[in-house]
Amino acid sequence: MNLLVVGAAGGTGMRLVAQALVAGHRVTALARDPRRVTTRHEHLHVVAGDALDPDTIDAVVPGHTAVLSALGATTRAPTTIYSRGTANLRRSMTAAGVRRLVCLSSGALDSGAGVPAAQRLVTKFIVKPLHRHAYADMHRMEQDLAEADPRADALDWTVIRVPMLTNGPRTGTYRYSPDEGRPLDRPTRLSRADLADFILGHVDDRETFATRVAISY
Question: pTM here?
Answer without folding.
Answer: 0.91
